[in-house]
TrEMBL record:
This is DUF115 domain-containing protein. It comes from the Bacteria. It comes from Spirosoma linguale (strain ATCC 33905 / DSM 74 / LMG 10896 / Claus 1).
Length: 301
């Protein structure tokens, strides 16, 4: 009884302090409130870059084409990008926003930029965090392809009392911590009030690729659906640009915890907004959302 009362008081105080901090952050960044375009159809598909997306594209391609399509980060590297002609694209990787003409070690970003400038010949909305405004990448895109409309969203992480935080999310003043770009994409699509959001390619199976070498360095093999498997190896995950130390095992699993917790927060927020999220990934460790195969066609009711 005493323990339960203590835990309840502790949780209230934690939420109270977190709410005050969130309100202070909102006050500082209130001019960055997100303004989102309306959905084009009632249903969208958020496509993660996990290996299972290959199977989903093979079996669900026609269904996905009937929905509003949302791609993320390096999806433009895939042949499917041109075939699908997605209406929406979300980039959250901070490396994109420090990239410039002098960067020599990010051919992946250079490739994405090239595709945006040379191959996107349809209207597409690019969602990026507000702190990306004025960067080299966004300048090149905004000047180089008028078919791409850039929408800046407010990536201010908010925590606290649910009703307060959900209201702030809905007003575009912030969002849950986006440990993965998929979390950011889902938060944006919830706020655009899609009736149903289908999630594909969200394997979230990085733990399967974790290794530890004889020097206690943490190694991960990053696998995406557009990669050539023979070119992939386990690589150290460094803490700093100097590459002196790798993440610890504890830090890596804490990062995974934050990702899975983010999906739980989104599930509850989606319920609050009356939006259904369905995890239709061929393989996925995400247990926060309903698992369901897609129907053969999209209804516009």
């Amino acid at each position: 009884m005493v323990e339960a009362a203590f835990n309840s008081i502790s949780q209230f105080l934690s939420d109270f302090v977190a709410s005050l901090v969130s309100l202070a952050k909102v006050a500082i960044r209130i001019r960055h409130a997100t303004r989102l375009p309306n959905p084009q159809v009632p249903v969208c598909s958020v496509l993660g870059n996990g290996p299972s997306l290959t199977e989903s594209l093979a079996t669900q391609f026609d269904f996905i084409r009937q929905t509003e399509i949302v791609c993320v980060n390096n999806f433009a590297h895939a042949e499917a990008f041109i075939q699908l002609r997605p209406q929406d694209y979300v980039i959250l990787d901070p490396n994109y926003f420090v990239f410039n003409e002098h960067t020599t070690d990010r051919d992946d970003i250079r490739k994405t930029l090239s595709v945006f400038l040379e191959k996107v010949d349809w209207p597409m909305t690019l969602f990026v965090p507000h702190f990306a405004k004025g960067t080299y990448l966004l300048g090149k895109i905004e000047q180089g392809n008028p078919l791409i409309t850039v929408v800046y969203f407010n990536y201010t992480v908010l925590r606290g009392f649910k009703r307060l935080i959900y209201w702030l999310y809905a007003k575009g003043f912030g969002m849950p911590q986006a440990q993965t770009v998929i979390i950011a994409a889902l938060a944006l699509m919830i706020n655009r009030k899609f009736k149903t959001i289908y999630l594909f390619g969200a394997d979230t199976s990085w733990h399967e690729q974790i290794r530890l070498n004889d020097q206690n360095q943490l190694l991960i093999k990053q696998i995406h659906f557009y990669d050539k498997p023979k070119d992939l190896t386990h690589q150290p995950v460094y803490l700093d640009a100097q590459r002196q130390r790798t993440f610890s095992m504890a830090a890596q699993f804490l990062s995974l915890h934050k990702a899975f917790r983010g999906y739980e927060v989104l599930r509850d927020y989606a319920d609050y907004r009356g939006v259904q999220i369905i995890n239709a990934s061929a393989k996925s460790y995400i247990d926060a959302f309903e698992r369901q195969a897609t129907s053969e066609s999209v209804t516009n009711e």
